[in-house]
Amino acid sequence: MQPFLQLVAHDLYTKIGNDLSRTVLVFPNKRANLFFNEYLAEESDQPIWSPAAMSISDLLQKLSVQKAGDPIRLVCELYKVFKEETESRETLDDFYFWGELLISDFDDVDKNMVDADKLFSNLQDLKNLMDDYEFLDEEQEEAIRQFFQNFSIERRTELKEKFISLWDKLGIIYHRYRENLAELGIAYEGMLYRNVIEQLDTDRLKYDKYVFVGFNVLNKVEKEFFQKLQRAGKAMFYWDYDLFYTQRISKHEAGEFIKRNLIDFPNELPESYFDIFRKPKKIRYISASTENAQARFLFSQTAQMGSEKENAIVLCNEALLLPVLHSIPQDVQNVNITMGFPLAQTPVYSFINAAMELQTNGYRPDTGRFTYEAVSKILKHPYTRQLSDHATRLERELTKTNRFYPLPSELKKDDFLTILFTPQSNIRELCDYLLRLIKSISILYRKEGEYDDIFNQLYRESIFQSHLKINRLYSLIESGELSVRTDTLKRLITKVLTASNIPFHGEPAIGLQIMGVLETRNLDFRNLIMLSLNEGQLPKAGGESSFIPYNLRKAFGMTTIEHKNAVYAYYFYRLIQRAENITLLYNTSSDGLNRGEESRFMLQLLVEGPHEITREYLEAGQSPQNTLEIQIEKTPEILRRLYRAYDTAQPESVILSPSALNTYLDCRLRFYYRYVAGLKTPDEVSAEIDSALFGTIFHLSAQLAYTDLTANGKMIQREDLERLLRDEIKLQGYVDQAFKQELFKVAPEEKPEYNGVQLINSKVIVSYLKQLLRNDLQYTPFEMVAMEKKVSEKITIQTALGPLTLRLGGTIDRMDAKEGTLRIVDYKTGGSPKIPANIEQLFTPSETRPNYIFQTFLYAAIMSRKQPLMVAPALLYIHRAASESYSPVIEMGEPRKPKIPVNNFAFFEDEFRERLQALLEEIFDEKEPFTQTEDIKKCAYCDFKAICKR
Asked: For residue 435, what is the enclosing H or E element?
């Protein structure tokens, strides 16, 4: 294989000789020159005056009297012209991102040397005077006709009116904008190029020979430039192509533009050098199930690929860079990465993003408070933790106290946190704030002895780049050029930083090459692996947005999607034409924008190519994990824990609650994890109100209401409830107070800050509270005995170690008394009533076991022995209590048989206590292990399912 650049070096040396000092090589990009110099050095044993080398962009910028303008400043200048010419009230915030679109269109107009007056002429004139446009060929005339077929000027809509009114102004805006930029001595790229070509004097050029190497699609500016130098006898052209796609297959998209160039600017190299595609090649197509699987597979191939320098890995999806870097084995000695490391994947970017989020969406100027999500995110960031000793403790404290909207004063625990949590009111302050934070972070990388660490070098560079970019914006704000809202500034900073890359330093011409598609121009490799060669990645999906309709772009010879597809086709075929071992991988999974299709170029090569292609499938090795059954035996240590927790003889013993017993009946292993091992889920702040919290807030609201009603006596009268039901403000006040205590964790005098969902929940709880009061109206008069009452009872059981005394109990929602009956009321805000067939069903683990009734019966059993009244357990399902016939009385009985209301628990107490005794003795029986439940449905919302792997 003889690389293209080697052919060029040999031919140039043969024609010009040792002294190339008056010659300049012009490449599509800078990388090719590094390889070219190596080949040139091989041509002679003597020292050579090497030629100058630059990209076409650099060359045209050197020939220009104007400088390339800062992209943000260019938009600001365009906005000034736009506002003056259209008298629009549109703000820079709204204009900015479509202003970029307009500059992109102007750039294309200039690069293709379009007559802007004709393009932006009145649409009616354009239609009427179409016959006078002698510069149009038949295809371009047809494109304009199609435009007017689809765009009727006569049938106007509001959108068309807006388009036409702006279109009519675009010509004036274009000229005024260019004049303003010329006065400032700056230009956008297309304007700069066009001005150079229009004013070019070939006699005054610095070099004798301009050698253009490896170009493909030329815009009008480049073509005009080439022609002027050609006429002056100062140009040489080297085109890289293959007869396969320029002659053997007619109308092949890869050869569409190169064929025109070969006619207009003849090649210095003979055609015989370019019949290489048909030479033997080993081509493999490999499909992979994921993007990362390709990277993992990649380096199993490089070991068989010979010399590192002859190998290239091309990433069609540049997001694969990190997985590829992590997959490089240690035996690969030299790697050259042509792509930069994305700034968006460094810690400083995530920190800046978190800080901007804190100061924009995370701060509420109306209340002077931050939101927990924004505060928590930045407190958890590694940089905050390193710069503040209080960060971890503060984050834990906010979580524990459920502080949704902390005040800045609560957060300023040290100097760094004071800077971090000082609200910024405008864009100048926000930029200054970010710059101060970046300076604080830079201190972390100033310690001696850390400069050899590759990550520290990378992160130091990312801090420098971030400071540079934000400082540039700060200068524009200071000068008054940039005046936008803070949310627009945030989007701008994000856009600027995500577009930035940190270059890798190394020896480009040595080692395995990892590159993007654009970096492969002019380079050849014996062994080639291309990753993510999917439709949508090569060619890139979709066209760029434009204000100029497609048909008009086509008619005036501007860049269209067909140009771009042809460019990518050329890149692909040119890259593989000299390669001998070609491996093309693509991703078969359909997710997001990826449709899981191989690129059209792979399909085209399969159908039209002269080579045999093998198809392979990359599959991940399956290693199904069998989940082992978990069984915890009651060892002496576990028994000691059980006794220490619940034996009343132990000083630290606790009450065994109905919830714990229900947990045991549902799943013994869950009981062990929660009540013996003491595992629990970590605290977290959530604005979501789950069913448990909803119930807690309702319970507290009801307690507050009845505390007020019983302030002057425990008897509840009908008129008391009727009066309260009419007082909406008071009812809402109880609910607000409950929210403040249970959810917001703020002082009673503070106003609750509801979000939308919380407000809905608040209104639902108010309606439930009303329903409770309406239900109690039917029961009046009654005595409110107690609310949220803690009760307990000692029970002695027999164990292998002798008698053990436990304390059973919990909190009863409400106890009321009427006509010699004490009602034990348990409020329920969810679920539906169940009717147990008998007492045994309460103690038998099953999906339908009525655990709420078990809890209420346990409280009834305790209260039966604590006072003389008859006890009636009741379950009040608030959300089902609207009907007049509703009764909270618990019923028992077999299905399809008459039901017995439990109005007197004494009839059921003996059997309940007998079975309760047996349950407690089972829990403390050393022969009964803690096992997993057989009812898998109970695992769905279990806190410990990750441990069980169910």
From this structure: helix 427-442
The CA distances from residue 809 to 702, 812, 860, in Å, are 22, 9, 11
What the block records as the tokens of 776 is 């109690």
527, 310 contact by CB (below 8 A) = yes
CA distance from start to end of the chain? 58
CA of 222: how far to CAs of 6, 135, 566, 701, in Å? Answer: 25, 19, 18, 77
pTM: 0.77
Backbone angles phi, psi at 441, to 5 degrees: -65, -40
- CB of 703 closer than 8 Å to CB of 737: no
- Looking up tokens 């607000």 gives 736
Q: Where are the alpha helices (H) located in 619-777, listed in sequence order?
A: 636-646, 658-666, 668-671, 691-709, 718-726, 728-739, 756-777
Is 399 or 229 the better-scoring residue by pLDDT?
229
Average pLDDT over residues 187-205: 94
Q: What is the pLDDT of residues 676-718, one digit of tens each?
A: 999 988 766 666 788 888 999 999 999 999 999 999 899 999 9
Collapsed DSSP state (helix, strand, coil) of residue 303: coil
Amino acid at residue number 94:
D
Strand, helix or coil at 321?
Answer: helix
DSSP conformation letters of 324-391: HHHH--TT---EEE-SPEEGGGSHHHHHHHHHHHHHTTTEETTTTEE-HHHHHHHHTSHHHHHH-TTH
Of 258, 180, 246, the closest CA to residue 215 belongs to 258
Report the distance separating Cα 498 and Cα 411, nearest Å: 30
Q: What is the pLDDT of residues 849-883, one digit of tens each?
A: 999 999 999 999 999 999 999 999 999 998 888 77
Contact 516, 523 (CB under 8 A): no
Instruction: Specify whether the CB–CB gap between 285 and 603 falls below 8 A.
Output: no
**Partners of residue 900 on adjacent β-strands:** 892
